[in-house]
Amino acid sequence: MPSSSFLTIVSKCSVNPETKSTIGNLKLSVSDLPMLSCHYIQKGLLFTRPHPLIPIDSLLSLLKRGLSQTLTHFPALAGRLTTDSDGFVHVACNDAGVDFIHANAGVVSIRDILSPTDVPDSVKEFFALDGTVSFEGHFKPILAVQVTELADGLFIGCAVNHSVTDGTSFWNFFNTFAELSRGAKSISRQPDLHRNYFKDSSAVIRFPNGCPKVTFDEHAPIRERIFRFSREAIQKLKSRANSPLKKRIDHGFPDAAAEIMGKQSNDCWKNNDGENQNPNGNITSVLEKWLRNAVSKHQGLIFETETETEVVDLTVEISSFQSLCAQLWRSITRARKLAPSKMATFRMAVNCRQRIEPRVDPYYFGNAIQSIPTVASAGDILSRDLRWCAVELNRNVVAHDDAKVRGCVEDWEKNPRCFPLGNFDGASITMGSSPRFPMYDNDFGWGRPLAIRSGRANKFDGKISAFPGREGPGSVDLEVCLSPETMAGLENDSEFMQYVSVY
């Protein structure tokens, strides 16, 4: 059963939970329903070849048994979507089973996957349910696992319905699958199936034309590349975004502070006795003292110029990831050559499990995410410094508290709709996934993964996914999808590329 010039589907079967489910139907939440128009999540792991003395059939049997045991704890993944007479969508935990596929791509090596600058198209063939929209879970499996043999390795790819899981739930499933496959007698992170993320909503999404369609052009040309950032490089970015006060003044930030110093240097300061002071003497120390006092009082700084009043908040601590996102925002905006007046959006998915009151279990199974947009003009993004961009991102993330989450839900319930993925105005970035997800904790019994890769699902110009770096805590990999022209511009952006690790 050939499926491409280099990959062959060897076998396909259905795997069912080891123990039958008794929980019945699980109603999709206000965070699940917007994902019905999204592709299935496609994420997978690249491994070295297991011990050569282990026959592939034995390995596949081990993985099927581990998957069956895992489905007992994640019964929704073995079910199907169903819509009742009132229009409410549920996951019927009916043990219908998941697809398990064995494929062979013996002409592809680990080096073929990791060495090219761009992610090779061959990786896209390592996932099942390609192009499937989550609404199709009504008549297709909610989960499909594909195990692909390579010349010198193995790839385990999972495709799962996005209206049933978010990234947190997905990687908890993947971790549990690995844990049980390597022989664990119990699981370390039991999923919470109570569906208590938010109130029981009466909102219904209607699809007059049947299955919803994806909201972006799936065939638009894009380049996909993995940019790796070491812990040291990210710490440099963080230091730049949180640079000491004196260093910020010495390097011309804020510009208004420099202007104040410049104006005052033309006039002699007077001491308490009314005597003139050297303008190049203690003026800097006086200004620095003033700034430090403002910071110590947790105040933003207000600089008045002839044309504007600017508030510069020097009290915000910028995280490593926010520093990286700010740099990405600046560099992609520059690469796109946007007009200064063009408004650019950086959209970031956030986990709401610990943002609402009462908090829900960290292993709540389902979607518990919302998207936070930060908007600024291209002129501001490029004319101001890294910290300004980072503070803008930080402000919106910090503000997304219980009240904000509930406000977004109330707004959605007034107009129930699917989440519009895409770059509709040519100036948007969408950040997904998270470097905090335990992707490299997936040891099936023969070692940690070599890399994380994803399929074609939900990719468009401006879609970014953040993965932990394999080098250890603090390192980050960014999977960046951009138009060919924008990618070329990003690769020529020295401000960005100075932080990228070269392997």
From TrEMBL:
Key words, A-Z: Transferase
Gene3D superfamilies, sorted: Chloramphenicol acetyltransferase-like domain
Annotated transmembrane regions: none
Protein name: Transferase
Top-level lineage group: Eukaryota
Chain segments annotated as coiled-coil in the UniProt record: none
A single GO molecular function term of this UniProt record: transferase activity
A Pfam cross-reference name: Transferase
InterPro entries reported for this sequence: CAT-like_dom_sf, Sec_Metabolite_Acyltrans
